[in-house]
Amino acid sequence: MSMSPREGHELFARYAFPPNELGYCGPEGTGLDELADRAREFNGAWPYLEAIAAATGADPLDPAVVRTYWVGGPLLDDLDPDALLDSLRAAFAGQSTGLLADVPSATAHHSFHVCVVYPWVRFLGRGDPSTPLRVLQSCRIRWGAVQRVVGDEVELMSAPLKYDGRSLALGTPATEVVRWRKGGSALTAAPAEGDVVSAHWDWVCGQLGAADVEALELGTAVTLDLVNRWLVG
Predict the structure, then answer these.
(1) Long-range contacts of 87-93 (CB under 8 A, 24+ apart)
(2) Is 221 exposed, middle or buried (0-12, 13-18, 19+ CB in 10 A)?
(3) Residue pair 159/216 in contact by the 8 Å Cβ criterion
(4) Whole-angstrom Cα distance, residue 181 to residue 187?
(5) With a threshold of 0.90, does the pTM exceed it?
(6) Where exactly are the structural domains of the chain?
């Protein structure tokens, strides 16, 4: 079954809301229903959506384009990584970035923006790595199985980012607590024990199928490989 354009708007809003709520990304004081209408103001996400759209001949808020950026998928293969890297360097010129000037190529996946464009990765080797690691872990899109639902929160079994002083990798799955609802509002349907879901910051963003999990794993692995080429030297 094909998805309607409105579903792309809703999908964008679900993943964009958690950092927007915290004031980290996008316009201030914007309600969930308005986020996609102001997607161009999400300066971090929009260049990737435009790049995927240009490569596929779709609208930047087409459901497949939006899912490709946040989750991953085969559309990432339609982009020229060298051309993408050039366009991202131009888009973020003048901003404080992490490894954007150093990596040999790029991928239009949210994990790339978190671990390569954001400056936090450069702080991993400077003293206590716990703060940058916590930010990188929270900001990336995670996936995991719901172990228990307790009120407005779920216990999620998910592999966290680990830094061993040399490289960045996914560690042994552990339990983390994220909310699926706040004040009666939710980004997705109520989860149940055994569901596999995605999480962004401290929100559950949606349920994932096997292909979604595979796409997230692959997109994350590609990004970590680029990061570790720099970290390991």
Answers:
(1) 87/47, 87/51, 88/47, 88/48, 88/51, 88/117, 91/47, 92/47, 92/117
(2) middle
(3) no
(4) 7
(5) yes
(6) 5-121, 138-213+226-232
| Closest CA relative to residue 81, chosen from 48, 58, 117, 43 | 48
Q: To 5 degrees, how large is the angle CA 186–CA 191–CA 192?
A: 155
By three-state DSSP, how is residue 109 classified?
A: coil
Q: What is the pLDDT of residues 132-150, one digit of tens each?
A: 999 999 999 999 999 999 9
Please choose, from the candidates 194, 161, 158, 162, the residue with its C-alpha nearest in 3D space to the C-alpha of residue 173. 158
At residue 163, the 3 state secondary structure works out as strand
* Sole residue written with tokens 């004081």: 29
Euclidean distance between CA atoms 171 and 55, whole angstroms: 34
The domain 138-213+226-232: what is its CATH number? 2.30.30
- pLDDT tens digits for range 156-197: 999 999 999 999 999 999 999 999 999 999 999 999 999 999
Question: What are the pLDDT digits (tens) for 27-65?
Answer: 987 788 889 899 999 999 999 999 999 999 999 999 999
CB 15 within 8 Å of CB 48: no
The answer to whether the beta carbons of residues 191 and 146 sit under 8 Å apart is yes
CB 36 within 8 A of CB 10: yes
